Amino acid sequence: MMNSIEIICYVLVILLVIQCKSNDQEEGTLSYVDISKKYEEKEISLTDIAEVTYLHLKTDNEDYLYKGNLRYISEKTIIIPDDISGTILFFSKNGNPKSYFNRYGEGPEEYPVKGRDITSLIYDDKQDEVYLSFFNIIIVYSSEGKYKRKIRLPQGTRASIVDFDDRSLFVYNEQNQFNRFLQNTDFLSQSKDSSYFRISKTDGIVLDYVISPINEIDLTDCDGWRVLHDLGRLKRCAAGVILCMSETDTVFLYTIDKSLIPVFYKKPSVNNRYPKIVLSHFMDVGKYQFMIVKTLNNIIDINKYPNNYYVFDKQLGKLFSQKLILSDYLGKDFFISAQNTIFNGEKTYTHFELDIIELKQAHRENKLNGKLKALVASLNEDEDNNVFMLVEFK
Q1: Which of 27, 155, 239, 364 is surrounded by the most beta carbons within 10 Å?
Q2: What is the DSSP string of 149-199?
């Protein structure tokens, strides 16, 4: 865990690298992506920037069978909520079952959603507290499923949450902007009831709102469609929380001492283009800043509107198109997504789920090497689960 001096140094380094001041966007001193330009591709080996390990979760015990996505990683624990049963499964870092609980139901101490419908999942290892958020409710359990408390957020909140400190959580209200559209009122005339705020872990009381110094842009289109559920907006880091505010074309760092600092932006503005193109994911790790630019459109057509992945090299001060490679998996490209990235108070992790059928085919074509090759050779594509690739950034 970083001490206060290390955190201050971290913030100063960020400020030095990006050379930003709060009103300097027009002067060009703030780093940015210009979506009207085509950027040179930068090939980065994952093993150069991170420790890579491969994990096949042991599910010989039928209680630990699952269909779902990895939602939490730490030095000791991996958590997966099951999409079918609603069970919350805990595994050790080497893939062994640790514990599980299932409180799915309609009772006062139960959660009414399963797996991917849980908006956010946070685990506090020190306090052994699991935070499950859905709609405007957060329920807290132990890793054995003991009910601890229920936290109610302000009415109308659909929350994505990240851990902030020992006392508080940081919240993004995904519903706020859409609510304004449904009320058929002038978007820009709305009062500054920020979508970003910090709450008490104990009772959910709002401790402070984060107000952007930049006017928000209405992201709803003429048919009222927009992305409501975007887990890439909030990312915890050592210095605080990265806020990817798509509605301002700007990324901010909200620091531990409650300062709001711009760190990156996109141009031209969302308001100047149709369909609307937004900066939706951003993360800062080591020498690089990784980001995703996506198009908001009514018909989800990934071929017509593919996501664009970029990487900013802070040492070179230059933006590139992102291409990550791995010597253990020849011909396979990877892209860093903030949605799959977790900072657990000490280290930053991301993960990739590798399809077992594709892996077995790659093995037959001699495209696999090292530990990944050895693991895949031991698996059966008709019986075994997919393989997780864990990436611990240096």
Answers
A1: 239
A2: EEEEPPTT--EEEEE-SSSEEEEEETTHHHHHHHTT--GGGS----SEEEE
- The predicted model gives 102-123 an average pLDDT of 94
Pick from 235, 224, 220, 332: which is nearest to 276 by CA? 220
Question: Do 257 and 280 form a contact (C-beta atoms < 8 A)?
Answer: no
* Confidence at 29, pLDDT banded by 50, 70, 90: confident
Residue 256 — φ and ψ, nearest 5°?
A: -55, -30
How does DSSP classify residue 368? B
Q: With H, G, I as helix, E, B as strand and everything else as coil, classify residue 7.
A: helix
3-state helix, strand, coil in the chain (%, to 5): 15, 40, 45
Handedness of CA 126, 130, 133, 138 (dihedral sign): negative
Whole-angstrom distance, CA of residue 280 vs CA of residue 291: 8
User: What's the pTM value of the predicted model, to 2 decimals?
Assistant: 0.84
Distance CA 132, CA 321 (A): 35
Give the C-alpha separation, 40 to 30, whole Å: 20
My answer on whether omega of the bond before 275 falls inside 30° of 0, hence cis, is yes
pLDDT per position as a tens digit, 234-251: 999 999 999 999 889 999
Dist. CA 251–CA 287, nearest whole Å: 17
Asked if residues 181 and 218 have their Cβ atoms less than 8 Å apart, the reply is: yes
Burial class of residue 145 in the structure, from the number of CB atoms within 10 Å of its CB (0-12 exposed, 13-18 middle, 19+ buried): middle
Contact, 204 vs 151, CB < 8 A? yes
> Could you tell me how far CA 208 lies from the centroid of its own chain?
22
Let me know the angle formed at the C-alpha of 43 by 37 and 49, rounded to the nearest 5 degrees: 120
Which run of H or of E encompasses 377? helix 370-377
Distance (Å) of CA 185 to CA 20, 49, 220: 35, 47, 13
Contact in structure between 392 and 351 (CB atoms under 8 Å) = no
